[in-house]
């Protein structure tokens, strides 16, 4: 992965003024961002969230998934701690892209679960790559993460890329009748832990 830091600036949000850092992956024509709050380069493990893009959940308030509430909760928890990092990775639909995610939704409307739908479209259930996080951490001086996630495979992937994840913090939020089956499939087939 050829990831290059581009620029940093400020991003005022309803939870405080974050620093926003832009990175470019020219090889894959992707642009990723990291929001940080406080001094993340010194002072021990950083509260972190590695969040994969979900336009429908993050920006359009979709209740088919739990992405939007997780994003909001992560930013709130970072703000409450006064220090942390949100890695916002542009790998929509677990890496299959937005339009294929809509195709997968259509298949789920017809009875497939989220894993079967990906497979019917010819994709693996999860195509995401977390290698860019190591470059981002090195650039930002982050050496250890306390990671907010329900996904142990994400912890393993980051660890394999050389990131020291010292703790996994569950991020169980946003359950509703529209995403009950989706969350059950994540727990049953994708190894997500829905503990508190
Ligand atoms: N292919 C596909 N992607 C989906 C679907 N619903 C949400 N996503 C995508 O899934 C990604 C989020 O992954 P999740 O499996 O929900 O969660 P996670 O990141 O593995 O784990 P957490 O850290 O606990 O949130 C985002 O890129 C969403 O766009 C779906 O039905 N099909």
Automatic annotation (TrEMBL):
Q: How is the cofactor bound?
A: Binds 1 zinc ion per subunit.
GO annotation (BP), single = riboflavin biosynthetic process
Task: Name the positions where Zn(2+) binds.
Answer: 54, 65, 67
Keyword Plastid applies: no
Q: Which cofactor does it need?
A: Zn(2+)
| Residues holding GTP | 49-53, 70, 92-94, 114, 149, 154
Q: One GO CC term of this entry?
A: cytosol
Give the matching CDD domains.
GTP_cyclohydro2
What's the catalysed reaction? GTP + 4 H2O = 2,5-diamino-6-hydroxy-4-(5-phosphoribosylamino)-pyrimidine + formate + 2 phosphate + 3 H(+)
Q: Where are the transmembrane segments?
A: none
Pathway membership, UniProt: Cofactor biosynthesis; riboflavin biosynthesis; 5-amino-6-(D-ribitylamino)uracil from GTP: step 1/4
Keywords for the protein's UniProt record, in alphabetical order = GTP-binding, Hydrolase, Metal-binding, Nucleotide-binding, Riboflavin biosynthesis, Zinc
Q: What is its EC number?
A: 3.5.4.25
Q: Write down the superkingdom of origin.
A: Bacteria
Q: Name one Pfam family in it.
A: GTP_cyclohydro2
Domain GTP cyclohydrolase II residues, every copy: 8-170
Broad class of enzyme this protein falls into: hydrolase
Show the GO MF annotations: GTP binding; GTP cyclohydrolase II activity; zinc ion binding
Kindly identify the residues recorded as the active site: 126 (proton acceptor), 128 (nucleophile)
Q: Which NCBIfam families match?
A: PRK00393.1, ribA
Function as written in the Swiss-Prot or TrEMBL entry: Catalyzes the conversion of GTP to 2,5-diamino-6-ribosylamino-4(3H)-pyrimidinone 5'-phosphate (DARP), formate and pyrophosphate.
Q: Which family does it belong to?
A: Belongs to the GTP cyclohydrolase II family.
Protein name (record): GTP cyclohydrolase-2
**From which organism does this entry originate?**
Litorivivens lipolytica
